[in-house]
Structure formats: C-alpha cells, structure tokens
Design goal:
Helices cover about 40% and strands about 25% of the residues. It has about 260 residues and is an alpha/beta fold. Strand 2, helix 4 and strand 3 form a beta-alpha-beta unit. Helix 2 runs parallel beside helix 3. The longest helix has 26 residues. The radius of gyration is 19 Å and the shape is globular.
Length: about 260
C-alpha cells in the first residue's frame, strides 16, 4: 500500500471518529444550545444581511442544530417549504418541538456527505457547520446541483485564527481553512460568489464561564486528553492572566460568510 493511500485511509478514519464525536457532543447540547450560542446567532443574522434576495420559496438548511438560524430564515423569507438536515436526532427533535406549528417543514437525519439530496431549492443555507466536512468542495458542488437556476448557496464557517487564545495555551485545536484556502475552494466551483471575513472577540464573565458556554454549544471535547482538576485550574489561571480586560475574558472568533449564486 502506498503512503498516499495510507494517508487517505487515516484521514477517512479520523473524520469518522470526529463526526461520531461531533454527533455525540451536539446531541448532548441540544437543550442548552440556544441559550449559549450567541456567536452562532450573530453569524447567522449577519449571513442573511449579505443575501440580496428578499424572498425564497423552497429552502434547505444543512446542519440546522436547534433551529436558531432556521427561525431567522422563517422570519425573514416566509418560505413555502423548508427542509432541515442535521446529524443529530436530538437536535432534529428539538426543531420538531420548536416548529410544531409549522406544516411546511420536513426533517432529514444524517451526515450530509452521505445522504442524497432530494428536491430542488432556491436557497441552500448552512450556519457554523461546514467546517466539519471532509470534502468541502464535493459537498458544495452537491448543494449547487440541488439549486434551481439563479438559486443561492449561503453559508458561514470558521477560519484558522478561531479560538486562538485556547490553542495558544493548550497547543491543541481544530484545524480550519485559511481565507485563501476557502476562497480557492469556492472559486473552483466556477459560480459567482462573495466571501467576507471577520475577526471578532466575544467576552465572557471568566474562563470557566467561557468553557461552560463552549461545552453547552457542543463545540468542545474533541481533545483526547482528559483534564484533571489541577490542569483545569492552571488553564483558568493562565487564561485569565493573559486574556482579560475590563469586560471579562475574551475569545477570538474568525468567521467566514460565503454567498454563491448559481448561473442560469
């Protein structure tokens, strides 16, 4: 077996493990996500500001989570139908409860890289989800194929400077694409697009509050290292000594906003 094949198998196995962990952590966060997802809510609202259209009839949302971004889509566009996808059944169940009064919503459980997209949409949207995909270009091509002519694919993702304060102290963090890398992927699709970048700091009461907030949104717990109480205390002390100001402790978020329009 050549080294290239071996690396491909190792990468595939790593993604399977990561997605299983992802599903586990987001499932646990299904009831605490809304109250702690201030960053994700901020991203979703800002993404919709970059979309010029004021009406969509048929919408597909990838990685809907608890439905906070879905609510923004419904309020803004009042679509005729909405299809919601998520890898976590608990998250979809939260959406079913949240949108029980809506008759035009369908639910689709599964890894979006493994399920077949059915239907035709004029908006495919995703908020804070696509960074988990193993083949971003392949997935984006599939989303574009599911669009009607002149349809819109809009998504947010995280950049390589994301949560850099945590990475600096732990030497461990998720790998995100740089701006040039994600721009290259989108450009290769050969469709008109815009890509915006933002680096912003969010504040938390203290370092423990920050860690609890991350845990309650399901975006932590991917390190294989188990922290002892001593390690946790040392992290908190070091973080607060380095990354505090008059507002509390801060954490950097590196955000991308992409809007792709399918040609006629």
């Amino acid at each position: 077996m050549c080294s290239l094949q071996l690396r491909a198998i190792q990468k595939s196995a790593s993604m399977i493990v990561k997605k299983e962990s992802l599903k586990k952590h987001f499932s646990k966060a299904s009831r605490t996500y809304d109250d702690n997802a201030s960053v994700q809510l901020y991203m979703g609202k800002k993404l919709l500001e970059y979309i010029a259209e004021d009406k969509f009839r048929h919408v597909l949302e990838i990685g809907c989570g608890s439905g906070i971004f879905t609510s923004e889509i419904l309020n803004r566009y009042s679509p005729d139908s909405v299809s919601l996808n998520d890898i976590s059944e608990e998250m979809l169940n939260t959406c079913r409860e949240r949108f029980s009064d809506y008759k035009n919503i369908s639910y689709h459980l599964g890894d979006i890289e493994k399920i077949t997209l059915k239907g035709s949409y004029d908006l495919v949207a995703s908020n804070a989800c696509l960074q988990w995909l193993s083949d971003l270009k392949g997935a984006l091509n599939g989303f574009i194929e599911a669009l009607d002519s002149n349809g819109v694919l809009a998504f947010t993702s995280f950049g390589n400077e994301n949560v850099r304060e945590i990475t600096s102290l732990t030497n461990n963090g998720l790998k995100y694409l740089s701006y040039s890398e994600i721009d290259e992927v989108i450009k290769s699709l050969d469709e008109p697009y815009s890509l915006h970048e933002e680096v912003i700091q969010f504040h938390y009461k203290d370092a423990l509050d920050m860690l609890k907030t991350l845990k309650k949104t399901g975006v932590t717990g991917f390190s294989k290292k188990i922290w002892t109480r001593g390690m946790l205390n040392r992290f908190i002390e070091e973080y607060e000594s380095r990354y505090s100001d008059e507002k509390g402790v801060y954490l950097t978020w590196h955000l991308y906003y992409a809007v792709i329009r399918k040609k006629d």
